[in-house]
Amino acid sequence: MSSSGLLEWDERHRAAAERDDAAPLPLVVETASEMKPGRALDLACGAGRNALWLAEQGWSVTAVDGSPAAIELLRQRGPHLDAHTADLEKGEYVIEPSRWDLIVISYYLQRDLFEPAKLGVIPGGVLLAIVLLGEGRFSAAPGELRSYFCGWEILHDREGNPGDSPEHWAVAEIVARRPFK
Q1: pLDDT digit string, tens, across residues 135-145
Q2: What are phi and psi of 180, to 5 degrees?
């Protein structure tokens, strides 16, 4: 990520913290509420709205983001979390294979991250992803997100307006369970 892009994200995270709009995403709440708490990995976690909520529900949470400001805010709000500053695009965080009961990737699209994230989920564990739909590097084409999960049990698959964004951007959402074999 360029230094100007990183500074922009740092400012976004600081502004969000000042507004205190830290409610977890409804799909994260719905999905995790149906699971027994275990180990969760929140990739591109921002200031940690999902990570903090998961920890409050008894999950052991590791959170990763490229923004030092976001991780600093998260550590202040959740000192019990395992929070890391790492540029995911540069591979600065390695996802351990078969370690996580739940991996969350929300509002972040890095196509080459899906395979290591899938391998990081334990058999029977869940990967939840939400990405913007549209054209360009940071948006998925219709049906693209679903295509990364062939052979997985699809628990939730939706494209359209998420209802939780004031901008009402179109998104693709998927919740998929890793096969046991």
Answers
A1: 878 899 999 99
A2: -75, -20
